[in-house]
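fyi for ur records
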Amino acid sequence: MHLIADYDVYIFDCDGVILDSNQLKIDAMHNALSAIVTDTTQVKACVDYFRDNFGRSRFHHVDIFIEQFLLLDKNKTAETKQSILDAYSMQCKSLYLQAELTPGFIDFITQLKGKKFIASGSEQQELRDVFNARGLDSYFDEIYGSPTKKSDLVANILDITKASNAIMFGDAVSDLEAANINNIDFIGYLPFSNVKEKLVSLADKRSYKVIEQWSELL
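which gave:
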């Protein structure tokens, strides 16, 4: 692993890394499901899966909900899927405007001289709109999100930049996997992770660094 100042490209997940939004989004998904699904056991199973696999796109999650947990008649599948996505998206737009930045993030990112990108499981246009509204887009060369898979987003960034060395910052297993698949360095940001123990274990196996605060890297 290089010194933090020596990378050409820095790639950030959003939820739980830039914004303290993980629990807000879990609550939003619970609310979206509860408004549509009457079986509380099914709702809990969906939310548990969502929490444990945080960082993957909402499209992935809702497909899994439909296929594995909700046991719907086939003629109701498409309508229910769209209803969940619409209800969740409506809440996300609001919560993103309210979510706090993670402590010290701006101080950290302003120290970095290389190109900076977001590769998030959040819906791409929604994320771009919110970052523009909050004046945060100016810190990044580009913002990418779902429905494209995170590992593919990272691959696309590496292809565009032709970077010889890049690093990803994330708080989810999907972030670590995206870095590993693309053979770049990874740092796990732990304070708001929903899977802290698992992320620490996987990072240790692959000799990736984990941190509790951004100032550890300055």
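The longest helix spans residues 74-98. thats all i got for now
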